Automatic annotation (TrEMBL), chain A:
Transmembrane segments: 44-59, 66-86
Protein name according to UniProt: DUF3325 domain-containing protein
One family name in Pfam for this protein: DUF3325
Keyword check for Transmembrane: yes
Domain of life: Bacteria
TrEMBL record, chain B:
Top-level taxonomic group: Bacteria
Residue intervals passing through the bilayer: 21-45, 161-185, 206-233, 360-382, 403-421, 464-483, 503-520
Protein name: Putative iron-regulated membrane protein
Keywords: Membrane, Transmembrane, Transmembrane helix
Keyword Zinc: no
UniProtKB/TrEMBL annotation, chain C:
Keywords linked to the UniProt accession: Membrane, Transmembrane, Transmembrane helix
Key word Membrane present: yes
Database matches in Pfam families: DUF3649 (PF12365)
Protein known as: Iron uptake protein
Species per Swiss-Prot/TrEMBL record: Frateuria aurantia (strain ATCC 33424 / DSM 6220 / KCTC 2777 / LMG 1558 / NBRC 3245 / NCIMB 13370) (Acetobacter aurantius)
Transmembrane segments: 37-58, 64-86, 93-111
């Protein structure tokens, strides 16, 4: 179960990083967020990724932990990306 | 967006050339690569598949006493493999609950044949009694595994060379793809992706980008796994004498050559003591491989090699015992840097060290890789159809690619599912049963190709995908009818393997149904829509 | 059908020569492409093989050098293929491969002729 939680953490972290980009802010909120909010999102995104790495390595050792981390981040990034695409498709008139 | 020099997309000429290279390497090897990817994906669960395909064998419920299991099996092997120059047994793991062993026939003692060829006998053993188990003769999940890297059915060397060639094509496709889409990696969350009609390209790009670490690792490590076959030149040049060759071999595997027999009879020393020593040293006796040479002779040797379920390396670690006295002779527990690198690369590819969550990660990302290859193949036809002068009369090359796409993608799903169907339907007492199951696989694949040729392409896609979906969905039902381990029973008693397998079959059935429905919803309208962006934007990304 | 084949391949081909009779231009393109494919598939493999032998000259135990050579050879192979198709002409492609092959071949030849003197490990 803990792998699932770490995956969730990675998804949230990537979502934060995505939201910290001006393009996504424009698409999702219609305007750019304040520099403080952007900074905060980016910082918490990277922090989340770091914590995820720590949790996995603590639970599995460096070798298996790094492998699991690689898998979790790939899948999490893909899921966030998929979410953004679905969101964009829904709001764009065809 | 970004103006620094390193962030500019590659120049027109470079991108065009690399796009061409990517398209051609992807297309020529794509059908085989799809098969390698899909069979490789399911191979991450080959033990579970093997369990499902031998429903007569029920796993032991209690924690196994591995030293005792080893002793019991060794006693049985002393009887049934008497006279053999050596045998090798594999202790159970949590995912593989029976003991397996193979040994060279007495009559073929001198032939240096590889494991998997005819001169070897194999057997499964009950861990509780040590007696041989009889279950239906089947390769189980091993069939998909062997198809994955040597196209089982072809002569072994041909199959492995073909797999290696495909892997090189894949490696070049990956590198050329990265060069073309350099910009994606730099700002993928902000990249302008197409919408609607460009879904195939988007899907292919997304699957490629997000799985890139995995795809690159899997391809390169796959080549490394068989590198002794592909690049023997250094070994041939630098290691001339048998002693030098042996120095390399000990870096790669725990295989010990049978020495000269002493022609003095001596019973094998207690196996459980050796296993206990190994467990003490490595913390676990799971998945130990115990190889005995010259059993029953005074010159017997026993190599107890560490299993690969607990570490991210396949480099050999083993204890060498004197078979007659049980004395520990040598400890091999480290190899040189290059050998350890190879061991790690191999382990990353095989993923045997994974626990269940990580194994599912491997499976999902590998499945994404399969989809990456599949979307690439389909995308080729979608794009080319747009530039056909008459979409109803495509030229031969296009028709060829289209039919091969259908049979390699939809046909492969049908073939793999037919293999599982044959496991439940073929009589257990049949001769050459395992071979018959394999033949069903190939026959189903061949029939799909014929079907794909005879039907109009779009209908073939839809019908074959629905067929695959139906076969997958009905399989748990067939299982319920032909065995005493139906889904509801597995769910009630908490049999994760059988329940998980049946449920996964339904998940795959749903996936194929979705694809079939989607194929049905997109008539040639897709061709005219694809024509618009194809004319207005360049190949690749803006 | 052949024309469509070339349309697909155009990005890979070198710049066409000055105007010539159509059949000559077509043969030029075919032979240039065939040359590149040969360079990539066979020349690249040869380069990789040379690398795996030349690796024996590395300052490490022979089995480790053998394994290092084997493992790095595929990167060389892939790199050679990319180079062949990036080069501006088939001739340049071959020239590039040859330029890398010569020093590797020299090292490989030195290594293989020094073999009997090397101590077994």
């Amino acid at each position: 179960m803990s792998t699932l939680l770490v995956m969730l953490l990675c998804v949230m972290a990537f979502a934060g990083l995505a939201l910290a980009t001006s393009r996504q802010q424009r698409e999702l909120f219609g305007r750019a967020l304040s520099p403080a909010a952007t900074c905060g999102l980016r910082a918490s995104g990277w922090l989340g990724l770091l914590i995820a790495l720590g949790l996995l390595v603590a639970g599995r050792g460096w070798a298996a932990g790094l492998v699991c981390y690689s898998g979790c981040t790939s899948l999490a990034a893909a899921l966030v990306y998929l979410g953004l695409i679905i969101q964009a498709r829904r709001t764009t008139p065809h | 967006m970004s103006t620094a020099k390193g962030m500019r997309p590659p120049s027109r000429g470079v991108r065009q050339k690399m796009t061409g290279l990517h398209t051609w390497t992807g297309l020529l090897a794509g059908w085989l690569l799809y098969a390698m990817f899909l069979t490789g994906t399911v191979s991450y669960f080959k033990e579970e598949i093997s369990q499902w395909m031998r429903p007569e064998l029920r796993p032991a419920q209690i924690a196994p006493d591995l030293p005792a299991i080893a002793q019991r099996t060794a006693d049985t092997l002393a009887l049934i493999a008497a006279g053999s120059p050596g045998w090798s047994m594999l202790l159970p793991t949590s995912r593989n609950p029976v003991v397996s062993a193979f040994w060279r026939d007495r009559d073929h003692a001198d032939q240096p044949r590889r494991h998997g060829g005819r001169p070897f006998q194999t057997a499964l053993f009950d861990p509780d009694t040590g007696k041989t188990l009889s279950a239906r003769d089947t390769l189980g999940g091993e069939f998909f595994y062997r198809f994955h890297f040597q196209f089982y059915g072809l002569p072994v060397l041909w199959g492995r060379w073909l797999a290696g060639l495909c892997a090189m094509f894949m490696l070049v496709a990956i590198i050329s793809g990265v060069i073309v889409h350099k910009k994606i990696f730099i700002d993928f969350f902000t990249f302008r992706w197409g919408k609607g009609q460009r879904s195939w390209l988007d899907a292919h790009n997304a699957l490629s980008v997000f799985g890139l670490p995995f795809h690159f690792m899997i391809t390169y490590s796959g080549l490394i796994l068989l590198m002794a076959l592909y690049m023997p030149w250094g070994a041939r040049t630098g290691l001339r004498t048998p002693m030098q060759q042996a120095a390399l071999d000990t870096q790669l595997s725990a295989y010990i050559r049978p020495g000269q027999p002493a022609h003095v009879a001596a019973p094998l020393a207690p196996m459980d003591a050796m296993v206990r020593l190994a467990r003490q040293r490595w913390g676990s006796a799971e998945g130990l491989r115990i190889t005995v040479t010259r059993p029953g002779d005074a010159a017997a040797r026993v190599a107890v090699a560490r299993g690969d379920t607990r570490r991210v390396s396949t480099s050999p670690q083993y204890l060498l015992f004197d078979g007659a006295t049980g004395e520990l002779l040598q400890v091999h527990d480290h190899v040189g840097a290059a050998a350890e690198t190879r061991g790690v690369m191999a382990a990353l590819h095989l993923g045997r060290f994974s626990d269940m969550p990580l194994r599912w990660l491997y499976f999902l990302i590998s499945l994404g890789g399969t989809a990456m290859v599949g979307t690439g193949l389909v995308m080729w036809t979608v794009k080319r159809r747009a530039s056909l002068p008459d979409p109803h009369l495509p030229h031969f090359g296009f028709r060829l690619v289209e039919r091969l796409n259908i049979s390699s993608i939809a046909g492969l799903s049908i073939a793999m599912t037919s293999y599982l169907w044959s496991n439940r339907l073929l009589p257990a007492a049949m001769a050459q049963r395992a071979d018959a199951e394999d033949k069903v696989f190939f026959a189903a694949w061949g029939l799909s190709l014929l079907y794909a040729i005879c039907r109009p392409a779009r209908r073939a896609w839809i019908e074959l995908l629905w067929t695959a979906s139906a076969l997958l969905a009905l399989l748990p039902l067939l299982n319920a009818i032909t065995t005493n381990r139906p889904l509801w029973h597995s769910l009630i008693i908490g049999d994760r393997v059988f329940a998980g397998f049946d449920l996964s079959l339904w998940a795959f059935a749903a996936l194929h149904a979705m694809l079939a429905a989607r194929a049905g919803r997109h008539p040639l309208r897709a061709a005219s829509r694809a024509a618009a962006p194809a004319r207005s934007s360049p190949v690749g990304q803006p | 059908m052949l024309a469509r084949f070339y349309d697909c391949l155009k990005p890979c081909l070198p710049a066409p020569p000055p105007p010539q009779p159509r059949s000559l231009a077509r043969w030029y393109r075919i032979s240039a492409l065939a040359s590149r494919i040969t360079a990539a598939m066979l020349g690249g493999y040869a380069l990789a093989a040379l690398t795996s032998i030349a690796a024996l000259a590395l300052p490490m135990a022979t089995p480790q050098a053998v394994l290092t050579g084997m493992q790095s050879s595929f990167a060389v192979y892939a790199g050679a293929v990319i180079w062949v198709f990036l080069a501006r002409s088939a001739t340049r492609a071959w020239a590039g491969l040859t330029m890398v092959a010569v020093p590797l071949a020299l090292i490989a030849w030195r290594v293989s002729s020094a073999q009997p003197a090397m101590p077994p490990l």
